[in-house]
Amino acid sequence: MKLTNPHILCVNPWIHDFAAFDFWAKPLGLLGLASILRHHGLNVSFIDCLDRFHPEAGTNIKVLADGRGPYRKEEICLPRGLENIKKRFSRYGIAREWFRHDLKRIEKPDLILVTSLMTYWAPGVKETISVIKEIYPEIPLILGGIYASLCREHAEQNSMADLVVTGSGEDVLHKLVKDYTNFSFTPSFDSKDLDSLPWPALDMVSHLSYAPIITSRGCPFSCDYCASSFLQPKFQRRSPDSVFQEIEYWHSRYNLYNFAFYDDAFLINPAKYAMPLLEKIIESGMDIAFHTPNALHIREITKQSADLMFKAGFKTIRLGLETADFSSSRHYDVKVKENEFSDAVKNLRNAGFVPEQIGAYLLCALPGQQLSDVESSIMAVKKNGIKPVLAYYTPIPHTAMWESAVESSSFDLEKDPVFTNNALFPCLDKKIGIKSISRLKNLTG
């Protein structure tokens, strides 16, 4: 008879893709659940199949000054249906034998939790679960995360998981643990109050070169191409005090310098949230750097907010421009006006940011999109003295643009999420051709 509390294994799966790079990415949802489990007395292990600093990786690991770096990769066969694509396809992350060894060296788990991110990374999720099932075939395995939520039926039929869970896991975690391990605990938090949740268990990561931070969940906007409002229907915020304490903790305890804000709407209602946080960071005197890979809302980049971001230590600024077509007749939502964009850039430059730090995301290869419009947007961004950054469109189920994506694509997007990979430009008009995309990319330089 087992005398200790149940052992829960949490796994971050491999990526199967044409390209992948560590842009300050960690599985915060899974690590959040791991933190909750530990808080309630369960034994938790974490295996990261994307671990750049795995003990078997040696010492020749490339780490950029901002903490990012390349994943280890191994070329593998293209997925079924993409055999004729003239591109190399790889498994990104640790070697299969390293993963098997890691699975065997831990205490036998009572329950296994696997997360998922991009829908088109489904093959990596399946391979990860298949290896786990080789070692622990009788242990129940639950799959959650973005792919599981957006493509539940596909995940249930293909992933090999025993159960697929959609949406946030906090509210069902205690029931799942009870159902599969007979261990009962009463949650000591309220998922409606983000400040009550324990911070993600980043300390379980083998080596921290940065810390991703979430100050909110969801987004007040409902962009046609984005599934944020489906995944998180309610927009929730953490208090500036809570966020500041987390940043201070990772900085002081682990000597971290680089932090990445992964919010969809960091600057919304800045007077109540972002500005008090930035003021606290400035007052603390911490020498740290911030990055914004998910983009900032341009309309809220005022002189005051730009000054605070510069003084707080922001180093990488990404703006959610999407297009420089500011007309009301454009095919998708308009969140910013032309003067608001140019004013935001001026405010950032006046605050002290240099052009190399500022980039504006531009959507590319949307259904029915004319690449001449993208070219015009590139030139408009460059005219403002900052860098255009092309964001290639990924068709996502449960978005307003999904139906038009399905209609315009030469791939059967509804059959398999692997066909939605933005590297395939799945909704690009055949008459346009990949060479035109390469020309656009060259224009951004």
Structure overview:
The protein is an alpha/beta fold and 445 residues long. 32% of the residues lie in helices and 15% in strands. The protein has 14 helices and 16 strands. The strands form four sheets. Strands 9-12-13-14-15-16 form a six-stranded parallel sheet. α10 packs across α11. The model has no long low-confidence stretch (mean pLDDT 95).
Number of helices: 14
Instruction: Please mark out the parts with pLDDT under 50 across 5 or more consecutive residues, or reply none.
Output: none
Beta content comes to 15-25%
Number of strands: 16
Helix content: 25-40%
Shape: globular
Sheet with most strands: 6 strands, parallel
Secondary-structure element order, as H and E? EEHEEEHEHEHHEHEEHEHEHEHEHEHEHH
The oligomeric status of these chains comes to single chain
For the largest sheet, list the strands in their spatial order.
9-12-13-14-15-16
Radius of gyration: 22 Å
- The overall pLDDT, averaged over residues, is 95
Structural class: alpha/beta
Distance between the termini: 64 Å
